[in-house]
Design brief:
Blueprint (H helix, E strand, L loop, with lengths): L5 E5 L2 H7 L6 E4 L6 H18 L2 E5 L2 H7 L3 E4 L1 H6 L2 H6 L3 E6 L2 H9 L4 E4 L17 H11 L4 E3 L8 H7 L3 E4 L1 H4 L4 H11 L2
Parallel strand pairs: 1-2, 1-8, 2-3, 3-4, 4-5, 5-6, 6-7, 7-8
């Protein structure tokens, strides 16, 4: 597939109800600390919404649910890779995105046949505490040179103003979280993102 260049990550399906009608066509649901019933309900609704709007849903971490619900895409962090059954994931036809922060993790992502590679945090991020410091745009360029045609996602501290620099550095897609969810006018911010990534 040809990826849309804008890839928001949300923690509730309510964001999909809000943003898919605005034009978002690639989105991740990152659901943490949910009951199994709530988790599967949100993923099921998210998948139906994405299919109705012609968008791609990426499920963060919950590979059992992704397989059971017939999802198309899964995103795993490095720790998630330790516990995931990659054979079952591939047998189910799921395509896989993998988070990376250093060369060893990049090698691992490539070795498992990642369908996209995410690099972060490109800039400092307030989303979660990480042991990784700012990667910088130079690392984006290095990663793209190393992975070639595999799509590269830049994530971490990304804003509308920083997106062009990430693309110039080699990113194929830019992912945003708090730049949208903490914005006083998320709809206007989505519109700005769609314009800068068109």
């Amino acid at each position: 597939m040809t990826f849309p260049r804008f890839y928001p990550v949300f923690d509730d399906v309510a964001w999909l109800r809000r943003t898919l009608p605005l034009g978002v066509r690639l989105v991740q649901l990152r659901l943490k600390d949910r009951s199994e019933a709530d988790l599967r309900g949100q993923l099921s609704e998210g998948l139906a919404l994405c299919r109705a709007w012609g968008a791609t849903l990426v499920v963060n971490d919950h590979w059992h649910a992704a397989i059971d619900l017939g999802c198309d895409w899964l995103h795993l962090g490095q720790e998630d890779l330790d516990d995931a059954d990659l054979g079952a994931i591939r047998a189910a036809g799921l395509r896989l995105g993998v988070s990376t922060h250093d060369l060893a993790e990049l090698d691992r992502a490539v070795s498992v046949g990642a369908d996209y590679v995410a690099l972060g945090p490109v800039y400092p991020t307030i989303l979660k505490k990480m042991k990784w410091r700012r990667q910088g745009l130079e690392r984006v360029t290095q990663w793209k040179r190393l992975i070639g045609d595999v799509p590269l996602i830049a994530i971490g501290g990304m804003t509308v103003d920083r997106a062009p620099g990430a693309f110039d550095a080699g990113a194929d897609v830019v992912s945003a979280v708090t730049d949208i969810t903490l914005c006083p006018d998320p709809d206007a911010r989505i519109a700005a993102w769609l314009e800068v990534t068109a």
